[in-house]
Amino acid sequence: MKIATYNVNGVNGRLPVLLRWLKEAKPDIACLQELKTSDEKFPEQSLKEIGYSSIWHGQKSWNGVAILTKDGYEVEEIEKGLPGDPEDVQSRYIEAKINGVIIACLYLPNGNPAPGSKFDYKMTWFKRLLTKAGRLIKLNLPVVLVGDYNVVPTEMDAHKPERWVNDAVFFPEPRAAFQKLLKQGWIDAIRELYPDQKMFTYWDYFGNAFKRDAGIRMDHFLLSPDLGKRLIAGGIDKHVRAWEKTSDHAPVWIEISGK
DNA sequence: ATGGCATCGTGTCGATGA
User: Fold this and answer.
1) Nucleotide lying nearest to A36, CA to C1' measure
2) CB A205 under 7 Å to nucleic chain B
3) What domain range is A162 assigned to?
4) What confidence score (pLDDT) does residue A259 get?
5) What is the C-alpha to C-alpha distance for residues A231 and A254, in angstroms, rounded to an integer?
6) What is the CA radius of gyration of chain A?
């Protein structure tokens, strides 16, 4: 089973790129972030026409997450919105059970400018995620905690770490929180497959960042321990970042053995 | 220290992102 994640940065503006990538990559499950659309304007029909069913948690203009599945899979929606703060109106979390696997699709707050209130929100959200992740891993079920974490875990995950030291994605606090997730037992799938390689999932639009390969790795697949044993392949669809009208992120995918 | 570039909305610029 192939599972992918893609921060589309506007699902309607990006629709041609999204459809082209789906037809090419053919993931069984695709988790999307930064839909930037209200629920009403989610392009359900266009995705249906190429064989994907969707569940989504949208929000006008900002944020938004979705889980797409190839027709034929049964999707049991579990939750929209991350628990822990009823006042939080931002759409950044959606969870479903598909084919016996719990898929938690998330878009962690960026947190810039840091320090400040947005950074505080990032860390509060991260603490709620740690609580949620701790509960999920205790279920002893196959779980995928996947999406745009807005965290560059280590220096190896940045082309030029110095460029990011004043950015919330590279601040010590979110990096420490990411390490806490790993300590819970989650496996960073891409790092597991490529322990020594610089692997990027995001490149700035400006300064020819993609051509210079001046990227960072912020989109992550965290796998529950049992799923980690079923990990057989994974990668980054870097070529998609070179397409016309493309997102600043590239899709990331993994292949899990079994049904 | 800043901007670079791109998205969305009801706009022709501001807010947001990273």
Assistant:
1) B8
2) yes
3) 2-256
4) 63
5) 7
6) 17
User: In terms of Cα–Cα distance, which of A185, A190, A212 is closest to A201?
Assistant: A190
Report the amino acid identity of residue A105: C
**What is the domain-level CATH number for residue A105?**
3.60.10.10
Write down the pTM of the prediction: 0.97
The whole-number Å distance from A199's CA to B18's C1' is 17
Q: How many domains does chain A have?
A: 1
Please choose, from the candidates A7, A15, A11, the residue with its C-alpha nearest in 3D space to the C-alpha of residue A37: A11
Contacts of residue A242, Cβ cutoff 8 Å, sequence gap at least 6: A210
SS3 at position A141: coil
A34 known member of a binding site: yes
Which residue blocks in A43-144 are alpha helix, DSSP H?
A: 44-49, 117-137
Classify A229 as helix, strand or coil: coil
Is A237 marked within a binding site? Answer: no
Quote the pLDDT of residue A258.
83
What is the rounded distance in angstroms from the CA atom of residue A195 to the CA atom of residue A3?
20
Question: Annotated catalytic sites of A, by residue?
Answer: 107, 148, 249
Low-confidence ranges of chain A (pLDDT < 70): 259
